[in-house]
Write a structure and sequence with these properties.
- It is a single chain.
- The protein has one domain (55-194).
- Helix content is 61%, strand content 6%.
- The longest helix has 24 residues, at 171-194.
- The protein has a three-stranded mixed sheet with strand order 1-3-2.
- The chain has 195 residues and is mainly alpha-helical.
- The protein has nine helices and three strands.
């Protein structure tokens, strides 16, 4: 199944979803993961962007794009594990990763609609506030420190862990994470009710 197919199953039809090629994402220095854009970018209207690839390729592609950062997906796996959406020794499947990622971006969409668009604020203001929180959490400083360390060193790994733990504390990310977690729980309950 392609990301775009899953996104269309998970999202209401009135929310724009765009499929973006991997070369386009690479040129824009974006990870091959879904993302939320509150403003139009080039040919794309505001909405949820998904990479043009199969879901089964999602974790492999992510590891290829950030080979020195195993915590990019482990932080999500830990989040799901901590919220009892994975068993203790269970690994995150590509399907679960893709579903979480799309729902997470949908959480950003609804947050933007509720806290910004509903009161007349723009995507530009959303980005400004997001960046302000990012600065307050020193995420850019942590990133700079990561790049000063020897690749693969314990110091670099410790900083990567710190970065991802701090990133998950960003208020905008917490809202999106909580939306995705709640939605996954609801879906699990519906599946369990059918058994």
């Amino acid at each position: 199944m392609q990301y775009i197919e899953l996104a269309r199953k998970l999202m209401p039809s009135d929310i724009p979803v765009h499929e973006v090629s991997l070369p386009t994402l690479y040129q824009a220095a974006r990870l091959p993961t879904p993302s939320f854009w509150p403003d139009a970018k080039g040919e794309y209207t505001a909405g949820i962007m998904v990479p043009k690839m199969k879901i089964q390729e999602s974790l492999t592609e992510l590891q290829k794009w950030v080979p020195d950062d195993p915590y990019t997906y482990l932080s999500i796996e830990n989040l799901l594990n901590g919220n009892k959406l994975l068993d203790l020794n269970e690994s995150m499947s590509p399907q679960l990763y893709a579903t979480f990622s799309i729902l997470h971006e949908l959480g950003h969409w609804y947050d933007f609609q509720d806290r910004y668009r509903a009161v007349g604020l723009s995507g530009k203001q959303y980005y400004s506030d997001y960046t302000e929180e990012q600065s307050r959490l020193n995420l850019d400083e942590i990133t700079k420190q990561i790049h000063t360390q020897t690749r693969g060193s314990r110091e670099q790994m410790d900083l990567l862990i710190l970065y991802h733990e701090t990133y998950r504390q960003h208020p905008f990310e917490r809202i999106a994470d909580q939306y995705a977690i709640n939605n996954l729980r609801e879906r699990n309950q519906e599946c369990n009710a059918l058994e």
